[in-house]
Amino acid sequence: MPVIGRPTSYTEDLAKEIIKQRMDKPLSRICKAESMPCRATVYNWFNDYPGFLDNYMRACEIDADNEFDELISLADECDDPTKAQIFKLRIDTRKWVLSKRLPLKYGDKIHKTIAGDQDNPIQHNHTVTPEEALKERGIPVPGVELEDVE
Questions:
Q1: How many CB atoms lie within 10 A of CB 56?
Q2: pLDDT tens-digit map of 120-135
Q3: Whose CA is closest to 67, among 122, 11, 134, 22?
Q4: All structural domains of the chain
């Protein structure tokens, strides 16, 4: 009797095929093939097979690197000034997606340092008396009126 439906059982061969295809295709496109499991099944395999998740994540990084390389080709393809805005939109969209997929590698670099200089480092001293701490929380202190503590 022929097997009907998509595969749901994890096999190394199927996992390797998914990883191989993921290096240049999104999972949604891979899972559209009748021989592949649905996305929910693949997501469940991430929990059940940590090695599969590691390989999948590496494949996603390779796919992102491939997309980055394609940005140069896409920019070079634009030889018609009337289509420049179309190509700009395509490039900017891909750049935005890459910045979300791998923010440390392709995201905007924002570096904030709050340290002062070497001779005058920033110092912050704040002392709160027990009475002040209790007042902030609205807890009455015996012998101290709430108005007395500021």
A1: 19
A2: 777 778 787 877 777 7
A3: 22
A4: 12-105 (1.10.10.60)
